[in-house]
Structures are given as C-alpha cells and as structure tokens.
Write a structure and sequence with these properties.
The protein is an alpha+beta fold. It contains 4 helices and 5 strands; from the N terminus they run H-H-H-E-E-E-H-E-E.
C-alpha cells in the first residue's frame, strides 16, 4: 500500500490527538473524507493503512498483521457507477479481503455497508 499517503494520515491523526498545529502542507495534501474514515476506524481500535488508491483504506488484523478488509470511501453526493463498486469487490476478493463501503455525509458522519458476492442458482 502507499507509504507516503499513510504517513500523512498517521501524522494528522497524531497531531489531532496532541496540542500541535497542522501545517499547511498537510492540510492541502489530504483527502478529508478519507481522513474522516481513517480517524473513525482508529478510534474504534482498528489497525488502518492507506489503500491502493485515493478512495480506499485497508484494515489489518491486530494479531497476525494480515490484511482483513478494504474500505471504499464515497462522498454522499458523489455519483458512482455499479461497475466501480464491482471492480472494488473483485479486487478485494482477489486479495482475500472483505469489502466495506463507507459513505461520508456533509457533516462528516459515516455509514458503513458490507458487500459480498452471491451466486444465484436457477
């Protein structure tokens, strides 16, 4: 996963939990919805890393360090087609991870949805 973006998220998370001020460079280099989801997951006790692209995060298992789930981050007003969701589902499945979609509203509230593939038999 991308190390540089992870360090930006981790740096901001650490600054938010201290009395330090956030530099302008950090403020302008972060996806705020992604940071919101990152902070929420960290506060829930999850081990979080940056994902494959700017709209994903990865949750790791605390004990084994194995990748456990992929989080796809979507803004509530963002138009997204079903193919993009299916692509993420297949991508996470190929990496042996669960897929969750996090929808971030204009107030920063996050709703998580679990996605999985089912096969219908005639």
């Amino acid at each position: 996963m991308s190390e540089s973006s992870e360090s930006v998220l981790a740096k901001i998370y650490e600054i938010l939990n201290s009395t330090k001020q956030i530099s302008d460079n950090l403020i302008y280099s972060v996806n705020w919805n992604k940071l919101d989801v990152y902070v929420d997951l960290r506060q829930r006790g999850k081990v979080v890393e940056d994902g494959i692209d700017d709209r994903t995060l990865i949750i790791k298992d605390k004990g084994s360090g194995k990748y456990k789930a992929m989080i796809m981050i979507i803004d509530e007003n963002e138009k997204i087609n079903f193919k993009q969701i299916l692509d993420k589902l297949y991508q996470s499945k190929s990496m042996d991870m669960e897929l969750y979609i996090s929808i971030v509203d204009k107030y920063g509230d996050i709703t998580y949805y679990s996605l999985s593939e089912i096969k219908m038999i005639k």
